[in-house]
Structures are given as structure tokens and as C-alpha cells.
């Protein structure tokens, strides 16, 4: 059963186009939404939360679209961004009181539990919180109510390793009941390595690939060797070829493995390596066009 | 109901200015004393209070800019709820200071100062002007500046100038009005009745304008991103 369905989502700006983004995320799974800066990650996530209006396409959460019932749609979403969206002059008591008003499923006890657990200061204004505290407050505010989909936009960036580990643990716990899902954009791809079930890679507003993480790792090889020994047939297939004084490194689709022969080293790549080589490849393509 | 929640948010956002409101009440009492001893109307004091209210009533636009707006946008509510909450804040703030004006007048009545009844009608007209100014300011902010971070200077002018103009115009017109009243041959009771009617009509018209302005804001904002 799909929790999040995105169909042909497009958004047109003067200097940027997000084009034909389509995917679905089943209940109980975590999707990593990755791409370079300016590739359209935040735009997509804002379209999903309903803050932005798409030029074309459709988003459904648990079968419900934004247009059908905006209130019910937004209730299903918990959003944690890279910056705190709470007004700087608020204190925790104000946030608690407001969330109670707006969300029937909000549990003040749960919220207070998170506040105590993460030692968030009740009497300080949000502007005096550290970045980590602000992120954890956003998590407390979304985890204290019943949501179906967590939308995280670079939420773990800038957190110390202990807090990052806590966030990853929370996400795994969140999807554990098999009814809820997470879409998670981050630059820290090692986080996705640990928790993501699906990877959606976007570049310059276009889909590059979208697959289950394990299949993705199986579908590529990280190849290393001497640059001089690369045959032309292989060179054409290599993605993000990076050459230096010691040789080359690139990724290759696994179904082209026969081109390698015995002359090169290959291994399973990490998500990080696949994405970095793809971005290099795309940048090289753009350079060629220019 | 959700509009009331947004109203509550605006009061929390601007809670610091609520601490200043009693100071304006005291100031109005003091300045009221000097104008009443000069046999002038307390309307000058009231127009001063309403001038203050038109500045404060749009304060949430200054507190909720850039990333802070995300908090409001993510709530399960419609644009209509959010805009209604903001207009309710503006109008309720004007009404609050109008009530304080009433309290100032009440204090002077208890002290034995005679307040001509026709000034109540004139006071209602002032209230109507205060509502209109606040409405137009909110309309302006929604149409041109909601959430913008880099136009503090212009937004301050927009917030202060109309109220200030109202204050000076009222101070000027009140002298003329008093002269006209003392020179008229019309029965004072009839004139008071007419002034009250005019005041009540003006307030009703101002509130209708507020509803129309809110409807325009909703229509415009619904088409925008970050709405």
C-alpha cells in the first residue's frame, strides 16, 4: 500500500524547472531524496507539504490530495526543515499551547517527554536555542502528534554525531509500525546508507534514478585502475570518470561488467560514490553542451 | 475557529507590545487632563490612542517574516483562516484601544468633567477611521509585503504615516467641529442623535470594508506560493 504518490510533478520558475517528478513510497519505508545544491530537492518537498503550488502534477498522501482537503492533508504531514520555522520570540510553552489548538492528535505528555529527554530549555526563547536544540524541538513538535508522513529537508545537517544518531534512530522507530513513512533529503549520504530503503536522485530538476537502495548498490560497480588501459568501449559506459596521477575511478552499471576484463579493480559502491560520480557525469555533460 | 487560533498566535507574537499598552492609557489620562481643562474635547486624546492602535495593529507582519512564516503555513488550516486571524488581530487591537479611550472618558466623567454627548458620535467616527486605516495597512502588507525581510524602512512608513495623518487631521477638525457646534442653531439633542447615527454607520461601513479587504487578500494569496 502506497503512502506517498507523486505523479508528474512539475514546477516552473524563471530560472529553474522541476520537471516530471514521479515516485511512490510504500507505507513503512524511508526514502532518501538526494541531489546537489539547487537540484530541486527543497522545491519537491515544499510541493509535497503543500506550501508551494505545482505547475503540473499531483501529490497524494494516503490517497488524499491537497486540493481535496487541505486541512486533513496537512495533518498527515510532519515537517522538519534545515532551519527552525518557529518564530524566534516564542518559548516552548507557546509552541505547546498552539500545537494543542491546531492538532487534535497532539499529546502534550508526549511533547513534554521529548522536551525533558532532550533537555530543551523551557524558559529560553527559540532564538537562543542551539541549532541542535531547534532541530530537536521541531522533531518533538511533529512526533507528539499522529502523522503519516515525515518530510525532512536537510534536518540532520549540522547536528553533532550523537544527535544525528538519535535522529536516525527516531526515523527508524517512526516507520516501525508499518503504517508511516519518511522522505528525507540530506547531503550526508552515509545517513541514507544506514536507514533509507529507497533512493531518489534528482539533478537540475530532473530525475536521474529512483530505486530500492539495495538494488541500486547491486546495479553499479565502483571501478578503479590505470587510465591508460581503459578501452574506448568501456570509457563510454563509465559514469563520472575521475582521473588523477594514480589512475581513475568511476562507476559502471553492473550489466556492463563484462567490459572490465581482468585489468581493473571493482567493488560495490556506496550510495555516496554513486551519487558523486553521477553528479560529476552530469556536470561534464553540461560542460560539453556549453 | 482556526481563525481564532491564528489570532492567538498573533497576540503571542506581539505580546511585548501589550506591556506598553497600559503606558499609553496613563499617558492618555494625563494628556486628557490638559485638554479637558482647556475646555477641548477628549477626542484629541482618543485620536492619539487610535493613532497608536493603527501602528500596533499591523505588528505581526514584522514579527513573522522569512523562515518564521513556515510555522503558520504548515498548520492544517486554510488561507481564509490565516487571513481572517490577522484581520481579527488588527481590528481587535483597534477595538481594545477604543475601549481604553472609553475608560479614559469614564475616568473624567467620574471626576466630574462634563463630556458633551455629541463627542461620542464623533468618537465612533474616529474609531471608523482607525478601522479603515488598519484595514488598508493589512491589505497593503498582504498584497505587497507579506513575509518580506528587506523592506523594514518602507513598512515602518506604511505603519506610521496614515495614523499620524489621522491624528493631526482629527486635532485640526475637532477645533472646527467645536466651533460649528457652538455656532449652530440645531437642537443639541437632535445633533447628538445625528452624530451617533453617523458614527454607528461609519463603524459599520468600516467593518464591511474590512470584510471586503479580507476577501480580496484571500483571493490573491490563494494563488501564490507560500500561502
The radius of gyration of chain B is: 19 Å
Number of strands of chain B: 0
Structural class of chain A: alpha/beta
How many strands appear in the DSSP assignment of chain A? 14
Biggest interface, and residues per chain? Answer: A-B, 27 and 24 residues
Outline of chain B, from the CA principal axes? elongated
Strand coverage percent of chain A: 25-35%
Q: What is the level-2 CATH architecture name of the largest domain in chain A?
A: 3-Layer(aba) Sandwich
The CATH H-level homologous superfamily of the largest domain in chain A? P-loop containing nucleotide triphosphate hydrolases
Uncertain segments of chain A: none
So how many helices of chain A? 10
- Main β-sheet of chain B: number of strands, strand sense, barrel status? none
Terminal Cα span of chain A? 44 Å
SSE arrangement:
The complex is a heterodimer of chains A (290) and B (227).
Chain A: E1 2-12, E2 17-26, E3 30-34, H1 41-49, E4 56-61, E5 64-65, H2 70-75, E6 77-80, H3 92-102, H4 108-117, H5 131-143, E7 149-153, H6 161-175, E8 181-185, H7 189-195, E9 198-203, E10 206-212, H8 213-219, E11 220-225, H9 232-237, E12 239-244, E13 247-253, E14 265-267, H10 271-289
Parallel strand pairs in A: 3-8, 3-9, 6-7, 7-8
Antiparallel strand pairs in A: 1-2, 1-4, 4-5, 9-10, 11-13, 11-14, 12-13
Helix pairs in contact in A: 4-5
Chain B: H1 2-13, H2 15-37, H3 43-56, H4 59-63, H5 69-73, H6 79-110, H7 118-145, H8 152-183, H9 188-222
